[in-house]
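INFO  loader      accepted 1 record
INFO  loader      residues=306
INFO  predictor   begin
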Amino acid sequence: MNTNNNFQNMNCGQPQVGSPTGQEGVWVPVDANSLPFTVGGNVNEPIQGPDGSYYCISPASPNYGPIGANLNNAIPTPSSTVQLPAIVQPIALVPYASQNQPLVQYNPSYQPEIPLGNSGDPVYKAKPYAALSVSIILFAVASVVALALLSCLKSVSSITGLDAVLGLAQKFNLGEISSKYYTEVFDPLSSSADIMVKIAIWAIPIIFALLAIFAVILTIKYLVKLGGRKSPRCFSVLAFIGLILSAINLVIFMMSDVILGHTLTVELGMYIALGAYLLMFILPFFAKKGAVVVDLEASKRVYTYR
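INFO  predictor   done
INFO  writer      dumping tokens
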């Protein structure tokens, strides 16, 4: 743009041109976007604008040169020297591949849907092994009967497991109770200074009481399994503990001369109780793990999908 009417060579590009009025002046750069009108014309040709000032389109900076055209150029040669805009490639950070794809979220507690089965599909359940449950129940009852009615040990006379438990009741004066175990074993040996003797005479009736309680609990447990048609297979903790306690009592009776200094003989009831607990512990493992049968009643039910 020419700021006065004096003549001067313009300094807006190459080659330089003079003032259109022949008078001295200065050419200054102007941003074409800041003008309220459009400036046309050719390069280095001064043109008077609507505001009365003269404008000239300057050529490109000499720092930029034209691209030589040849057959090896992958980029076509422009018609004039131009400054191409910078190319910015944006990276789309979105949680989906396209706008048509729904947004998803990870759910660690997801459970797959159970497919709807056909109405005729069979329903399976664990094989109940009812015979094993019945056998265990019978052995549990047999152990209680043996402890209560049969002779389990003999001192001077034969003593049942129930009589040994009643010896504790007589020790604490719980009613009018007369116990052979208290008279023949507990009372004579309780005055001994040997700590092992005191532990043994207390342990014998306590073990008999625990064996009877465990047998009753096991009877109820396997009755429930039998009624619910469930498999009896399991590791029976009560049967295992009862087996160990029976073995401890048996050892005390067999080594009574050494432990107590008093002879106690093992009787039939103790052997029956020990054998019953051994069978109650082993028999559940005869039920095959993972064995199933068709649940005929459940297979006939009508199911709806919701």
